[in-house]
Structure formats: C-alpha cells, structure tokens
Design a protein that fits this description.
single chain; about 350 residues; alpha/beta; Rossmann fold
Length: about 350
C-alpha cells in the first residue's frame, strides 16, 4: 500500500506527515530520530499498512514540517506537545501505538510521561538514553560535571555541522552527511540501494541547521572537554538536566513496552563512538580526566535500569536485540524487526 503525504495545521505548527493504510484501522505513530525524517520509515510503513493506519510526522525543523525553533530547556517537550497537537488535529478519541526511533524514542517516552492513559503501547527502537545523551556516568544518570560539560550543542562535530549547512552530498570526507549515515546509522558494510540512499541523504539534509535548530548553542566550561549545553536547539534538548525521561518508570497506567536495538549500534551503546567518555578513553580527545570522572556513558545499562524499575512498578517490557544491525534495525534487518514488532503488537490488537 503506497505511502502518501498529509499536511495538518495544528494548534502549534504546520505539520507534514507520511501516512499509509486505512484511516479506520488502529493508529500506529512512527517518530523519527535526529538528522533524519519520516522518509526513513517508508519500507516499514508499507509493511504495516495492511494492519494499521500508520502516521509518521516530520518533527519541527525536520523534513517538510514548519521550522519553528526548538527550546532545548524543555527537553523532548516541544516535540511531544507538537505530537499531541497533531493527534488532536487528526481526530478526537485516538489512542495510538507509538514507535520512536533514536531521539524519536525520547519523544514518545515524554509523550507517555505526559499522557500515560492515552498510549496503547510503546516501541523504543535504539532509544535515546533516559538521562539524555552524554555527560552522565552510571545507571542512575549521575552527572560527570555539575554544568553537564560534554553534552549538548557543543558536542557536535563542527566539520559535520558545516557540511550539513552546506548541503554536502559528497563522499570525500568521513564527516560528510552521507558517510556519517553509512558509517553510524548502519552497521558497515550495509548500504541501501543507491536511489534509496539519495532519498535518505536528502532527508538528512532537509534538517534545519543554525540557531534554535541543529545542533544548538554551547557555553564554555572549565571542565573537560570544555563545552557545556546552552538552552536552544536539538542537541541541547537531548542534554542531561533538560532531558530526563526516567519518569517513564513511574507512569500509570502501564502501556506495554518493546525495546528493540541492534547488537552493533555505535550511536547508542555502553561504548558509543559519539560519546566524549568513549572518545576520551580511546585517546581521540586529549585531556580525558579518566574513568572515575568521565567514563563512557552506560546508555544501554541506563535504559535497562529504568525499564526494570518500570517492571517493578507493575509495567511490562520486552528487550529484543537484533543481530547484524547497527542503529537502524528497521532498515538493516527489516524482516526480524517486523516480526518482533508484530509479535508485540498483535496481542494488544482489539483491546
């Protein structure tokens, strides 16, 4: 069933979404990650359209949705509030299944924290760590530094940011958006077909770059590695302090949760190659203060710790690790991903 476009003027912004399936079917909402858009879900949407009405919005500042600035100090709340406004515009009484990928998993967790009775199920694919990305050192999310140095907008690679702003489609640098996608979103040597790759690169480059958007500002810090979060833009919205999704453990009622991740994810892992703790330990960033002060962030351990608390409080979750996959199992191992997702959703259908 073909994916089609939809635009809605909501109480918050003009939102573009990709949709598939029958509007009378159960609603499944897919929320994309950072440096991507709804375009990354096309194959998955086509696979699900015979069972669900699938809606995949472009978040503010991404894809074809309105480019309103992101208040990083609200964590994921700008996005979750936008999602609520879209669902209200689609029709009252909707109780969706929510699936979020990477940063999008942070959005759906925030949505569930804010509206737990309105969520039918949660699927977290390669999720943003519950205490934010960077700058924490244990499963409880303890800060490495009080000013949260090592996280936020200043943690983005400046050459990658420059090439994004210039809409660079080349393969002449490891920091080109195309090469970053193929090296980090996927487990090398996986690549999609060349025509599909061009679509995905275009989706990455459609992200707004600059003040209020990607990556967000930075403040100088006396603490290693010398930068701390400002309050604007997406990477600051994912910084610890602003982003705290650990409240998912205490929500009630308890929607079932599926946690899906690739075994070889280089972005969200306990040794993430985008985390200053890992880079310092590898000697890639000089001056590392050592594992007692700034160890690699235990991202997987933090997620498991929070979901174990959710289970102790009466919730239910399942963790599925997909072999042969990096950060994007829905693209890299679509059959295994779809099988796990449908096995999770099917018992809840008709509830």
């Amino acid at each position: 069933m073909k994916v089609r476009g939809l635009r809605r003027s909501t109480a918050r912004l003009e939102t573009y979404a990709r949709v598939a399936g029958d509007e009378g079917s159960d609603l499944l909402v897919l929320v994309h990650g950072n440096a991507s858009s709804s375009v990354f879900f096309d194959e998955l949407m086509e696979s699900l359209a015979d069972r669900y009405f699938v809606v995949a919005p472009d978040l503010r500042g991404y894809g074809e949705s309105q480019a309103l600035p992101i208040d990083g100090s609200r964590g994921m709340r700008d996005f979750s509030d936008d999602l609520r406004a879209l669902l209200e515009a689609l029709g009252s009484g909707l109780r969706p299944h929510l699936l979020g990928w990477s940063m999008g998993a942070g959005v759906v967790m925030q949505y569930a924290i804010d509206h737990p009775s309105e969520v039918r199920s949660l699927t977290l694919e390669s999720p943003l760590p519950p205490y934010g990305f960077g700058g924490t050192k244990d499963v409880d999310g303890t800060l490495c530094w009080p000013d949260r140095a090592g996280s936020g907008g200043g943690a983005a690679n400046p050459e990658y940011v420059r090439r994004l702003a210039e809409r660079d489609r080349t393969e002449d640098s490891p920091f080109s958006p195309r090469n970053v996608m193929n090296s980090f979103y996927f487990k090398p040597p996986f690549r999609v077909s060349r025509p599909r790759e061009e679509e995905l690169v275009s989706a990455v480059l459609a992200m707004r770059v600059g003040e209020g958007f990607y990556p967000g500002g930075a403040r100088p810090s006396e603490n290693w590695p010398g930068v701390a979060p400002a309050a604007d833009g997406i990477n600051n919205a994912m910084a610890p302090g602003y982003c705290d999704l650990s409240g998912i453990a205490a929500i009630s009622p308890h929607p079932p949760i599926l946690w899906l991740r690739g075994r070889d994810d280089q972005i969200v892992s306990d040794a993430s190659l985008l985390d200053f703790g890992t880079l310092g330990q590898l000697g890639a960033v000089p001056g590392w203060p050592g594992p007692d002060v700034f160890p690699p962030q235990p991202m997987v351990g933090q997620m498991r710790h929070v979901l174990d608390r959710y289970a102790l409080a009466g919730g239910r979750y399942r963790e599925v690790v997909i072999d042969g996959s990096g950060h994007s199992p829905h693209l890299e191992q679509p059959a295994a991903f779809l099988a796990a997702l449908l096995a999770f959703l099917a018992p809840d259908e008709g509830a």
